Amino acid sequence: MTYDFDLATKINAIAAKAKDSNPHWISTPHGEYETNSGNDWCRTCGLFMFKHLRRKDRKRAEQYYFDGGERAGSDSHRFCAHCGCWLRISLTDYGIEEELHYYRENGVGLNSIPDEAYSLDIMMRYASWNGDHETEIQASRGNS
Length: 144
Hints:
The chain is of the alpha/beta class. The protein has one domain (5-131). 44% of the residues lie in helices and 14% in strands. The chain is built from five helices and seven strands. The protein has helices spanning 5-15, 43-56, 93-106, 113-129, 134-140; strands spanning 20-21, 24-27, 65-68, 72-74, 78-79, 86-87, 89-91. The strands form three sheets. It has a three-stranded mixed beta sheet, with no helix packed on it. A two-stranded antiparallel sheet has the order 2-3. Strands 4-7 form a two-stranded parallel sheet.
């Protein structure tokens, strides 16, 4: 199987319309990287929540830290805890297998076109460079 660079370029152009951000976290005075049940944040929402938490806890405000800002490896897609935008991830081999399985079972078109393209773009990018996914790709096409 060869990588289809033309298709990847077209999908990437559509995916660029989806809002995304590198993932961020908030460390509390207790050292926990969590707010809102440990969810991740986009930069905009994370900074807002970080400032809000510090204003509410002025005595310990200096003990709060805003962290992250780099693409993270993940088994699945991640979304901002507040606005729901895509958080930039690098899919693991397991994540690629799960995405391929999802598309084999559900097909394309359940989400908005930019969101669908964003998901496919990430999957194609990491499937092309990581691991051996030929069997799952053939299964998703209906070839055995």
